[in-house]
Amino acid sequence: MGELANCPRCNALFVKSVKSICDACYKKEEDAYDLVYKFISKKKNRTSSIDEVVEATGVEKDLVLKFVKEKRLRAGDFPNLTYDCEKCGAPIQEGKICSSCASGIQNDLEREKNIEEVQQKTSRDRSHTYYSVGNFKGKS
Questions:
Q1: Predicted model pTM
Q2: How far apart are CA 17 and CA 59, in angstroms?
Q3: What is the distance between the alpha carbons of residues 31 and 45, in angstroms, rounded to a whole number?
């Protein structure tokens, strides 16, 4: 059973279920999707960028980005529908970060893992070593 919520787009009260917006806003989004899809599915518009789609259709850029991120508009069919990597701003077609940033994060994680392994090995080696305490110079 859904719960009552205010629509984040129009602030109307609605029963929140699978959809996170009210029925009226959902219908508006679907109409916008149809408009964008009709524009971009024409052969001459298939290589349009997001900015060109926004300019030609009048649909908000955030909404077009949402369609791309939800993979309703597939990057394989429309190669110039890209958005910015959340880390470096490079154009990407899926996910949140580009492959370069992903490999950088992976390298950082591996480096951190190696440092932890060396620290654990060092601490294990020290646990088997005995150290003298006190001053032995004066005892002769």
A1: 0.67
A2: 25
A3: 19
CA atoms within 13 A of residue 48's CA, in its CB half-sphere: 21
- What is the tens place of the pLDDT at every residue in 65-119? 889 888 888 877 888 888 889 999 998 888 899 999 999 999 999 999 999 999 9
CA-CA-CA-CA torsion sign (62, 60, 17, 30): negative
- Cα–Cα distance, 97 to 58 (Å, whole number): 27
Neighbours of 78 (CB within 10 A): 21
Q: HSE on the CB side for 24, CA within 13 Å?
A: 9
Containing 91, the helix (H) or strand (E) segment is strand 91-92
Alpha-carbon Rg for the chain, nearest whole angstrom, is 28
Name the token pair of 109.
């994680």
- CA distance linking residue 137 with residue 140, whole number of Å: 7
